[in-house]
Amino acid sequence: MQGSSEEQPPEPREDATRPNPKLEPTEQDEPEEAARREAPLAADAHSGHDDHGLAHTMPVWMLVGVLGALMGLTILTVSVTSFDLGSEGNLVVAMVIATIKAALVVTFFMHLFWDKKFHLILFLTAVLFVILFLSMSITDRGEYQHNIDLYQSTTSAAAK
Amino acid sequence: MSETTSESAASTAHKGGHGAPAPAHGGHDAHGGHGGHGGPHLAHHFDTYQQQFDAGKLGIWLFLLTEVLFFSGLFCAYTVYRGMHPEVFVYAHYFLNTSMGAINTCVLLISSLTAAWAVRNAQLAQRKLLVLNILITIACACTFMVVKFFEYEHKFHDGLLPGPAFHPTEQVWELESFKHKHPEAAEYAEKLTKAAEAKEHAKGAAAPAAGAAAEPAAIERPTEEQLEPLIKAGVIGPNAEDQTRPSKPRNAHVFFGIYFFMTGLHGIHVLGGIGVFIWLLLRANKGEFGPKYFGPIDYAALYWHLVDLIWIYLFPLLYLIH
Amino acid sequence: MASPSATADVVAPRSSSSDNYLTHDKGVLSWIFTLDHKRIGVMYLCSVLFAFALGGFFALLVRTELLTPGKTIIDHDTYNQMFTLHGAIMVFLVIIPGIPAALGNIIMPLQLGAKDVAFPRMNLASYHLWIVGAVFMLTSLAINAVDTGWTFYTPYSTTTSTAVVPAAFGAFILGFSSIFTGLNFIVTMHKMRPPGMTWFRLPLFCWALYSTALIQVLATPVIGITLLMMIIERTVHIGIFDPTLGGDPVLFQHFFWFYSHPAVYIMIVPAFGVIGEIIPVFSRKRIFGYKFIAISSLAIAFLGFLVWGHHMFVSGQSVLAGTIFSAITFLIAIPTAIKVFNWITTMYKGVIHLDTPMLYALAFLWVFTIGGLTGVFLAVMSVDVHLHDTYFVVAHFHYVMMGGAITAFMGGLHYWWPKFTGKVYDEKFGRFGALLVFIGLNVTFFPQFILGSRGMPRRYYNYLPEFQPLHVLSTLGAYTLGLGFLLTAFYLWKSIKNGKKASANPWGGATLEWQCSSPPPYYNFHKAPVVTAGPYDGYENLMYDEAIQGYVPRKSASST
After folding, report:
1. pTM of the predicted model as reported, rounded to 2 decimal places
2. Chains that touch C (3 or more CB pairs under 8 A)
3. Is the backbone of residue B287 left (phi > 0), alpha (psi -120 to 50) or beta?
4. ipTM higher than 0.85?
5. φ, ψ for residue C457 (rounded to 5)?
6. Chain B residue with minimal CA distance to C124?
7. What is the DSSP letter of C21?
8. Could you give phi then psi for residue B286, rounded to 5 degrees?
């Protein structure tokens, strides 16, 4: 830490109620801190593809390329509906295509590929929790569905 | 003010600067952020622009997590309901306009591109392009809302409202989308309806008919093409509301409840995004963003991409049901 | 090596110590629009304590009514509203924000060595949202207080004529308040640690707040959407939860408890953090098993997401789901027990100072253990079938919430009171208050275990005469508890008016918040402190100075 001018330490009883002087500003601090914080906002000498800035910059060809892929996948997902793959099959295909689109958006548009790994972990954690939530609810509902069906059939039978 | 006095570095100047009631160097600026001691757009409680940017990035990612979990409840309701009552969903999808949904998907994808591009513009301090991209993003978002408005208007007009307000003005087999896909089934349903109506009319008028002998004689045994789409849509069969004639499936209104809720909540988020981008547009126009400070554009774009992501899943789930 | 406090040389400070965060800016507006985390924390503290008094008032109404079977002071519909309000206010307005927003906001950045939280404006927004949420809840009270129970179960909540929508919407807003606090804390702890403050040098209070923040961020949105769905179901009748409209009421319970179970960990994990701060300081001994306690907070946060169905064993949930939830619930006892054992081991061969904070911490150990163990009883499906919706459950959660969270809150309040008020409360009153509270809560809630196991249902207005003696005992305990809190309020208030001035470090803590003055300056630390030791190291380098009634670094020729 900063070596401050050493004075004769006064008695503890005064200082103990005051902030820790080691953490207080000294004369030598100011210019350093000011220099550390100051930074111009004007464009850097390195513009374009640089990692010297605060974060990676997306090249235009990549942005447009991803859009192209997304559009293509959208067309694909709409046209697949004209084929009959069974009600489950269509849903699975639609979800797979949607997930590929989502992955493209998250990786490229949302920059996750160049971002801190922790953000990816956070995102996957959220998805994991959603899956946990959905799967337990569906499993449970599936288990007691027959009770509902039984009740509905008996009441409609009674109604007849 | 404080920087110059401290750089001239007399101990008295430092003391004066520190003890003054006005926010001094390193002091707590209650309206921190713009102008002053740390550098433009560097909040007082951050040490460097990098720290500020990283903190904001982590913050927005955490917020996006909360949005994912927020929508998850609706996706869960959708999944549970569709799993247990697929016929309601098959029935309802004929009423939806796939083209409008697809247009909206494309519009949002384009707006995602321009939002991501805007981040690049901000990083490179390309003010004019930044303003243009934000404008296009807003325009696309507004287009999305306009298309949505027309969709909702159609639904209102056709009586496709949630809950007890659900009174479709047309039967599903009378819809163009149904007739186009399953012409035989549509015809068959018409015939059944007419026969049922005739039977009721006869019941109401003269002597009661001796059994239902009249009905089966009038209509031949249905084929697979005629029957299957109707059973799948819950029009006839065990899930139909009315067992004596083609009708809608039990609890068909639930789909539309889910539909309006999901698309409505999504629409509210789109509106929120439009508001944020308008605010950023004004700031961008003033030239506030550059390589050291482009966080707000980045964070807003991330939010926007999430809105797009949610729609990427909503579109096939609501519009592309087979 | 010694922590920053325990260095030999002391240099004269330059700042004026009469200028602190309380005196720095004047006027009501400087409080309403403050960005200072300490002021926001103080505002939260006042608001939460007010809500606690309100919730407590409703509790006393409920307990008074239960003095006799049949009507005592209110009728049955009003009774339903009273217990609902008591629950909703306590859960949403008091305990969930409680320790994180009130104590955490004031203390966490100081413990970290940071200037403020990462997003001060979001912090202020979080407080304002609390106020808005509280207003909505009170609106429900004013119109026709909600009577569904704090759990808002459908289809009753979607069909009852009481003002459910304002109450549910209030809880919805409060959810956002909670999310903002959690988000802020996570980013603060990731991005604003000073040099030398590694993750494993963080105080355990910070670890607890971090784990809580993770839960807040991940779970709260789900209650948000659930309440929204319930409101829409009630107003538009879309048919998601109401069986007559084709909906599924068990689905509501799944949605509700997916948040509300992690919510109880939001309530208790910060309490664990407070206890983890108090015990080493008042034992003058380093915490035992620091890493285990830190990681166990994360483990509890994670496991807490996997067990929500144990609230639904008799709801119609399938046996398969019930079995899974039951098994995982047993697992949560493990990290929790690790904490309790480590705290007890910390005290072993320590020098115990029985000041008020420590009394609350010791009370916590006893009372929380009872509450936690009875939770394990309830986790056993076959037992829960008999005990669900009885007073046994009521006793269990009051033991952990009142005996756990509130006791720890009281302990933390007393521990940090000199720091953020700059005043010392009367220790004699403090100890007596703690005793009253301890006796009160045991006399109130222990009989309820017996009532429940003998079949007294919860939320019932009428009951069989054979239950009356235990109900009377419970009510007497409730009055004692209320008295204890009133006494506490009295002497704490007195300390503000004419209490002795507090020293910087009255208890001899080694964490960073004891480095700054009491009250702290508005800027916390001008220079980021450089941390070179753990948060519970160096008690031997502090000595008590009678003159200032506080601890100071031990002046030694050679530093240890």
Report:
1. 0.88
2. A, B
3. left
4. yes
5. -75, 155
6. B30
7. T
8. -80, -5
